Description:
Helix content is 0%, strand content 50%. By secondary structure, the protein is mostly beta strands.
Amino acid sequence: QVHVQESGGESAQAGGSLTLSCAASGLTYRTTCLAWFRQVPGKDREGVASIGLVSGNTAYSDSVKGRFTISQAGTKNTWYLHMNSLKSADTAMYYCATGRGFCGTFHKSVYNSWGQGTQVTVSS
């Protein structure tokens, strides 16, 4: 069974940087995608970054492209979301998720294992 755990969320100033971590265990060959999503109260959960676990291909939402980077910590089962040039609009609960399928379109149906989330708050 896949287990996903996020960490690193905290308060930050606009223009600053944060790095979130995602530790994933129990991954099998069936797990092909890992992604970061975010959600604010009253809105749908939106995908912000994904990575193909076999291809290494990455994808980003338009709202974070050029500011956020998804990466893996070497061969460890830990992935990062490096967030730069933070904006107040980045304030959200951030979730890490794993799944199987095409990673680049952030379809939530691809992802079947989710973490509990880590809160990021950006103040201007």
